[in-house]
């Protein structure tokens, strides 16, 4: 391959990385919010909803919607003071504004007719993922109690400008029907009579969208791909990563493991730099060795290959904590949600395998047709990924 083509391919690889760099990594983890909802009741009795809302976001959004400066001042002061009692009191004192915000964006219907909400008790506080959340209990009076119950939530929409990609994780136990659902802007409602495949699709889609929207996870996967020369190597690396992140994802999502995001996020960024830097280190030892396979030991891997696999596994454990943070579920051993969590993970895996299936064959073809060009391309990609990982790591440490 001519030097001009080689330089063009290298420039293309750098351009792709530059486009990635224009998007802040926090889009995957830092500017989204999760609403938690539990719906309970009997077919001919009371329907109760328990909403858990991120406190500071709720205060700002409700105050802005109602033009209630007093709520903003009191709620913000209570948030900054870290006093849970004062936080609840601030909302209770401005319940009209707070309830108006929710009732305009959260509805329950039965047979197509709107149910009437009534506030139960006062606001209460707890913490999820180290963030203060407030609980709002509402009882709903439905005229047609025997018809299909549907819930719609559009809380904290993108248009308000405070967060992006708000999702609602719902569980329900109504009239003998129980299950879970995932809501977002594109799919804002669910019925308690939804089928199993509708529930499957909701959480599968949520998992797929999370990986596609998580630039840091994608770059980690890209670093794995460019550092693997043979199908066996990428299969082993992807399998190691999958096993590791699946274990911690389930443990963290079910509340058995709790690691603060301020620790998880910098380590995820560091993992990108380390894995990408591993390939650069091999290239630095010489082009011939850099292009050599990882040996013929157990599973076709030599010492370097096994070390790489161990590193990938360890960092996979941390990425699993990041995936769990996408759902923010901390209900210890919530068997109601276990099936949905597994489906969420399947969505992640489907996108991961799809990216490998597209990118790795192209890279393998380039290595066979133009080995020297492949060195330039993989080196440029690895250098860019490693640099971005280090920058994100420093940013996340400083912001934590």
In short:
By secondary structure, the chain is of the alpha+beta class.
Poorly predicted ranges (pLDDT <50, ≥5 residues)?
Answer: 18-30, 287-292
Q: List the total number of helices.
A: 14
Q: Please state how the strands of the largest beta sheet are arranged side by side.
A: 5-6-2-1-8-9
What structural class do you assign from the helix and strand content?
Answer: alpha+beta
How far apart, in Å, are the first and last alpha carbons? 47 Å
Strand tally is 10
Apparent shape? elongated
Task: Please provide a written account of the structure.
The protein has 400 residues and is an alpha+beta fold. The chain is 60% helix and 18% strand. The chain is elongated and about 75 Å long.
Outline the fold blueprint.
Blueprint: H1 3-21, H2 26-29, E1 34-41, E2 47-54, H3 55-66, H4 69-81, H5 84-93, H6 95-105, E3 106-110, E4 113-114, E5 116-128, E6 131-141, E7 149-153, E8 167-174, E9 177-183, E10 189-191, H7 196-213, H8 215-226, H9 231-253, H10 261-284, H11 287-290, H12 303-327, H13 335-369, H14 371-399
Parallel strand pairs: 1-8
Antiparallel strand pairs: 1-2, 2-6, 3-4, 3-7, 5-6, 7-10, 8-9
Helix pairs in contact: 1-14, 3-4, 3-6, 4-5, 7-13, 8-10, 8-13, 8-14, 9-12, 9-13, 10-12, 10-14, 13-14
Structural descriptors:
10 strands, alpha+beta, 6-stranded mixed beta sheet, elongated, 400 residues
């Amino acid at each position: 391959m001519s030097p001009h083509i080689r330089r063009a391919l290298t420039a293309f690889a750098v351009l792709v990385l530059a486009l990635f760099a224009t998007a802040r990594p926090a889009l995957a983890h830092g500017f989204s919010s999760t609403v938690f909802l539990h719906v309970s009741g009997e077919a001919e009795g009371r329907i109760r909803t328990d909403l858990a809302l991120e406190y500071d976001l709720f205060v700002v959004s409700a105050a802005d919607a109602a033009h209630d400066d007093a709520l903003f001042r009191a709620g913000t002061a209570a948030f900054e003071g870290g006093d849970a009692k004062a936080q609840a009191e601030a909302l209770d004192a401005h319940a009209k504004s707070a309830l108006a915000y929710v009732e305009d964006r959260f509805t329950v219907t039965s047979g197509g007719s709107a149910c009437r909400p009534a506030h139960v008790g006062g606001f209460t506080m707890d913490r999820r993922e180290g963030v203060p959340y407030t609980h709002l209990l509402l009882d709903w009076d439905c005229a047609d109690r025997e018809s299909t119950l549907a819930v719609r939530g559009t809380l904290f929409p993108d248009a308000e400008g405070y967060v992006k990609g708000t999702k609602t994780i719902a569980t329900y136990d109504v009239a003998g029907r129980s299950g879970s659902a995932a809501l977002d802007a594109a799919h804002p409602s669910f019925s308690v009579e939804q089928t199993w495949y509708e529930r499957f699709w909701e959480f599968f889609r949520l998992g797929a969208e999370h990986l596609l929207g998580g630039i840091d996870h994608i770059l980690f996967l890209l670093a794995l791909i460019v550092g693997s020369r043979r199908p066996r190597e990428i299969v082993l690396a992807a399998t190691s990563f999958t096993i590791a992140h699946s274990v911690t994802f389930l443990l963290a999502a079910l509340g058995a493991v709790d690691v603060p995001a301020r620790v998880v996020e910098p380590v995820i960024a560091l993992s990108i730099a380390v894995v990408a830097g591993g390939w650069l280190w091999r290239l630095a030892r010489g082009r011939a060795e850099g292009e050599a396979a990882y040996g013929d030991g157990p599973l076709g891997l030599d010492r370097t290959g096994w070390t790489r696999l161990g590193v990938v596994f360890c960092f996979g454990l941390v990425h699993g904590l990041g995936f769990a943070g996408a759902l923010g579920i901390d209900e210890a051993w919530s068997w109601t949600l276990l099936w949905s969590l597994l489906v969420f993970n399947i969505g992640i895996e489907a996108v991961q395998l799809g990216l490998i299936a597209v990118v790795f064959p192209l890279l393998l073809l380039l290595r066979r047709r133009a080995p020297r060009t492949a060195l330039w391309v993989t080196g440029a990609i690895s250098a860019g990924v490693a640099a971005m990982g280090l920058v994100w790591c420093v940013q996340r440490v400083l912001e934590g």
